[in-house]
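Pilot study result, target chain (125 residues):
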Amino acid sequence: MHKLTFKSNKTLKSLARETLFAKEFKIAYQDKTTKEKSFWLVKDDGIYVMNCYLKDGKRKVEHVVYASGYNPKYDKHDDLWERTYQVSGDDFAENIPLDNSALNRLRDGGNLTINLSDTQIEVIA
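Predicted structure:
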């Protein structure tokens, strides 16, 4: 199990606030949308959550929050690639559903923790 921690900051609060108000969300890797409020959990050069909501029928990247220790801009450790590879050998994007109470806690300054294994995702907000 890998523990990913997203510490509260201005961007995470804004992401939660905008997600609360949004009505439509893009489903990762599909040409479909859902009304279920969610963030995308993404693994590529680093690991981060980002918005997947649509505004006026379009998705625009507005908020990106890196997991602690997984931001390639600031975490220039020699083992960053290895640590992200341990989480997953492949790049991915996954919808992470969040209910209104969790989004309110994040908007008000709470941290987001995602425990991730090959078969499970546990979200604590």
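One observation from the pilot: The first helix runs from residue 10 to 21. A full batch analysis is planned for the follow-on phase.
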